[in-house]
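Worked example 4.2. Below are the chains of a multi-component assembly; read each line carefully before continuing.
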Amino acid sequence: MTTPEITHAQKLDFRVGQVMTRRVITVTPGTSLVELKEIMRVNRISGVPVVNEDGDLVGIISIEDLLRAYEDGAFHEVVGGRMSTNLITVYDTDSVDTAMQKFQQTGVGRLPVVNAWGELVGILTKGDIMRGLLREIQMDTQDEEICRYRASHIFHDVESDDTSLILRYRIPPRDFTAGGAASSKIKRALMRLGTEPQIVRRAAIAAYEAEMNLIIHTDHGGLITAKVDAYQLTLVVEDDGPGIADVKRALEEPGYTTTPPEIRAMGFGGGMGLKNIRKCADTMKLESEVGRGTRLEISLRLHSRDTPNQKR
Amino acid sequence: MRLAQVIEVLNGRALNEFNHAREVEYGFETALLSDVLAYAIPHTTLIITEITNHQVVRTAEIVDAAGVLFVKNKMPDDSAIRLAAEVGVPLIVTRLGMFEACGRLFAAGIKPARQVE
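Applying the procedure described above to all two chains together yields the following structure tokens:
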């Protein structure tokens, strides 16, 4: 497990079944060595798995076995007497990591791949692993890069004196199952726009706290408006009641909460939400009137020239 | 340590499909999700909890946690597991209680995330 390629394999958690060659050329124990030589020559392969009539793997025969038979003058023989029955196989569900270890420990060039029932389903070489890895890495980066390119260039491609993107999310009250969906979408939008991960995270946390506040506390839910321009994210979170009776306490006093106990049992309402929002944001403005509603406005600079309050 | 090793150390099992090679360095045990949001936990943190609602999955997603470990064989419902698969949050469950789960992970080298700040 030393080369960089293998480290990639570990990171991607590849399974043998994803990268193996499925179209396997096989012979039976009864195949003659003359025939085998032709099969190897025509297909340009140096080893062939041997299967019985039921498709079960019974051996493997390589070009070395063939050469040895030639030296022994045994070219009239059949595969069954010359194949290697000391089988080293991998399962299609094994990780590529496991397969690499087998390659290294045994020095073999190819591993027959069997399924849970012992049936031969493919063959694996180190070349298969490399090709599979390259394919996957390319696909991953391409997809993400295309999306990111399209999104992040909006501020350059579209000409105006001041371009911004407005995203609106309506949050229904008490919908705990959907809770956080809006913040998740805001988070993904910022990632697409190429925002730095630490800033995305602070924005997502602030949005999520605010979203949960709407779900937990409001009479009729509320509205989250995210405005993104080239430099800044502004989140405006509005509702029409009930309003916060003591804004100062809600903001300043540690542990002060008006969350009912049954919601606290779900893991929320430790009197930390607003304080945490303030910690994540660069600016914060909170206005509230009992009976009228609450309006929270926060902003985050999208480039980390200044040290954020919350460290990663 | 990888998630694969976490599963091994705890005799746990995976509840959804994820990259078992994902790295875990810190653990954060909690009964309060606000706590997870308030601490600046690193993205290599495993959240260890008995809370099994949707919000624990969302919280893990929002803070980019390495995964969620449920102790005492507590299991979220199918829709929460589906959500986790959708947003890419690894979920693991163990029969062990909070004390033993944390103890084993600590002994295996997982550090407390609460002291990172």
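Take a moment to check your reading of the output against the notes. The CA atoms of residues 90 and 113 of chain A lie 5 Å apart. The radius of gyration of chain A is 31 Å.
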